[in-house]
Amino acid sequence: MIIMIAAAAENNALGKNNELVWHLPNDFKRFKSLTTGHYIIMGRKTFESFPKPLPDRVHVVITRQENYKPEGCIVVDSIEKAIAVCPENEDNYIIGGGEIYNLALPFTDIIELTKVHHTFEADTFFPKLNKNEWVLVESEENFKDEKHLYDYTYETYIRK
Description:
Keywords: NADP, One-carbon metabolism, Oxidoreductase. Its EC number is 1.5.1.3. It catalyses: (6S)-5,6,7,8-tetrahydrofolate + NADP(+) = 7,8-dihydrofolate + NADPH + H(+). Residues 1-159 form the DHFR domain. With 160 residues, the chain is α/β, with parallel strands linked by helices. It has a single domain (2-159), classed as Dihydrofolate Reductase, subunit A. Helices cover 18% and strands 35% of the residues. Strands 5-4-3-6-1-7-10-9 form an eight-stranded mixed β-sheet, with helices on both faces. The relative contact order is 0.27.
């Protein structure tokens, strides 16, 4: 199963200068609980945005750089090869960035999207979902508080 997991703003913004443009601690906790113990597929820039590899996950990094070999990662040069190295009968997560989301969308079975209810200036965006291909099956509203500056909604989509 290929599951795309992302947080995107109302204008589909993901980030700017290889960083998120918001901070939602509960979304980080959700990301950790969903992806721990699984393969996570990402682009090189996303991998390099982490201070260190995420614990208890197998990192699959997609890059065109031939000699790129970060310790403890599986490195491939295409989304197809990234998916091929993942276990078939398990949940495997696409975690970004923008280019990888676009490449992975045709292979994706489920999308776990945190919709941040605000618009942001960004240089990386989540793909626009074709409502003829995806159905929203779960939605959970969350409201801003002292730790969360924006309202946000957890949305789960499955391919029709």
